[in-house]
Fold:
Amino acid sequence: MAVQANPNATVAHFVVGAADLFSGDLRAAIESSGTALELDPFAVAAFASHGLSAGAHYLLEEYEEAIAHARNALAIRGGYLHARVILAASLARSGALQEAKAEIAEILRQSPEFTPDLINQPYQPEHFASLVEGLRLAGLDEDRIA
Structure:
């Protein structure tokens, strides 16, 4: 309704994209977050729109796009843990294991108690499992995954 009422509402497009991502409509999530970024690439929440796109691309196994969006999010907000998690998993899935391990080290530096259960995003169970597997491939210790 908010997008219909104001098609230029950046935040409304972001929120719709978040709902799409977490309900499993990944292409719609990419479209909505892309619209938010087109409307205002310098918005306060631009880092989150990039993170949203990164997550959707990761789940679609489009790892290069996921890496690019995660890096854009981190360029805006270096401490954005969700983007760093997507980046680590995407790097691992794309075969860049050394870079993925470096991202895991940075995640643990930022959040020493990190486990995948601390990812505060309502992913679909199969999507969450894919993300956890990406983190495993990136070198996250098994005792943090169990």
Observations:
- Residues 2-145 form a domain with the Serine Threonine Protein Phosphatase 5, Tetratricopeptide repeat fold (CATH 1.25.40.10).
- The chain is about 70% helix and 0% strand.
